[in-house]
Amino acid sequence: MSFTMHGTGVSAGIAIGYAHIVSTVSLEVAHYVLPPAGIPAEVERFERAVSTAREAMLALREHIPPDAPAEFAGFLDLHLMILNDSTLSTVPRTLIETSQCNAEWALKQQTDKLVEQFDRIDDPYLRERKADVIQVAERIMKVLLGHPSHAPMSASPEQSRILVAHDLSPADMIQFKSHRFAAFITDVGGATSHTAIVARSLNIPSVMALHHARQLIREDELLVVDGAQGVIIVNPDKQVLAEYRLRQTQFELERQKLKRLRTARATTLDGTTVELLANIELPQDIDRVKETGASGIGLFRTEFLFLNRKELPGEEEQLEAYRKVAEAMRGKPVTVRTLDLGADKHLNGAQMVGANPALGLRAIRLCLAEPQMFHVQLRAILRASYYGKIRLLLPMLSSLPELHASLTLLESAKQTLRAQDIPFDPDIEIGGMIETPAAAVLAASFAKRLNFLSIGTNDLIQYTLAIDRSDDHVAHLYDPLHPAILQLVAYIIKTAHKANIPVSVCGEMAGDASLTRMLLGFGLRMFSMHPAHLLAVKQQVLKANLPEVTAGAQRMLKAEEPDKVRAALARLNA
Ligand code: PEP
Ligand code: MG
User: Fold this and answer.
1) Is 456 in the pocket of ligand 1 (CB under 6 A)?
2) Which pLDDT tens digit goes with each residue over 90-119?
3) Over the stretch 532-567, which tens digit does the pLDDT of each residue have?
4) Which domains occur in the chain, in start order?
5) Among residues 321, 276, 328, 303, which one has the least CA distance to residue 538?
6) How far away, in angstroms, is 439 Cα from ligand 1 center?
7) How far, in Å, is the centroid of ligand 2 from the Cα of 396?
8) Is 194 annotated in the active site?
9) Would you give the distance in Å from CA 325 to the centre of its chain?
10) pTM for the whole structure
């Protein structure tokens, strides 16, 4: 049966491929009580699911793909052992009988219990086995839920697989940088969540906030993903498929055409040069940056180096990462943002703290609360500054004392390096992200004390409009064109110019080509965005005439009602 689902398009492009369900046992599963007569059939259903999962694993053990990693066989043996252990294969059966519950619920109860026991184990090796238990339980769960488990690597090639998940964390997403899935779709998530940002950086069509995709889509079903419109078509018929194949080709042609702009200078029609910089998460992103001809790195989100690992990266490891980027950019500016952990990005094993993590110990607040961790990073950034043009950027400032405390710690990091005769750039520029309303209002005070400002519109919108950027329930209220946001962005740009310091926008607004003319009209001359968007933005810059866009942007600032703002933008872009 063919059907369509609507969500939020977070990364443009058309993908056609086969669903690969990513299941987690932590998902809500239905709980229902069975009549006594139904118990034997339910027990049998559970046992069949265990056998099916076992057979699939044994089949895979027999036919290990030649390109599978060396440890794959051992890993399968371990999973078979876990599956055969009575804790997973027998206890849920007893639970079905004693609690008269459905098999999924029994399996979830037992898995939760095992996970809890693993969490209490001191031995790190044994604690690590928790993930294996979860994966085995997921295999059984998939069979129960009617998604027969396909062993990884045994199904269709990765390039034609569309990952379907209830939720993916930024840490999950960053791991996909080394994969080549055709698309990602999830039930939850907002367009400027860090998960969405990483999806965009992969340049792969993605749709979020589909709500029931994980439940309604089955493993291996054919899907069309329209990442721009936020539409998924499940089991498309021939005509629909042909139509989307055509659109896919057209999209690809457009992308190819834009590539011609790679070496063109980003100059407006009246001759003003605009700097188009790139945002990166990991040093390996540099290759993509080079393909677009960016004039530097406007935002290196260093916290991604800290995710998916047990130990924090030490000074030497961080130095290598920052130095690699600095050297690869050959004297072009590289803006290294200090750690922005907290909210939706966590160290392995760390719990979300506080009822409202986005308003909690995040970014600079966390660094000031953990000065030793911050010190290591500051030393690494300073040391890397010797090998290129590094600029240091402080995230989520909201008060001057935070800035003073950060600068004091920076000074002491410099002193320890001087004492050890370790070279660094003594003139390293220090910038601040303006991404809280407090910092926006105090932009002049920050500008006086810093070498540059960078406007983090993703958070500025989140905090100004009081909308959690990763919560899709309020995604419709997350509005970059809200008059309050436009006033703040225009004000920060003007304030930085008055203070005679550079200012960039490094939030997602900078990479939205429909906002380029408006931002130019506000006076912005530095845009930092994911490499995937850079050429489309450059195309807008090349077509812009500054006096014209300035007048249009002023009209937008005067508009008070949302529809008037949108009409003014349409006029500006016409
Ligand atoms: C922002 O908030 O706009 C920003 C660039 O930082 P991040 O998206 O990493 O929070
Ligand atoms: Mg931010």
Assistant:
1) yes
2) 999 999 999 888 898 899 889 888 888 887
3) 999 999 999 999 999 999 999 999 999 999 999 999
4) 3-24+150-239 (3.50.30.10), 36-145 (1.10.274.10), 271-544 (3.20.20.60)
5) 276
6) 14
7) 7
8) yes
9) 20
10) 0.77
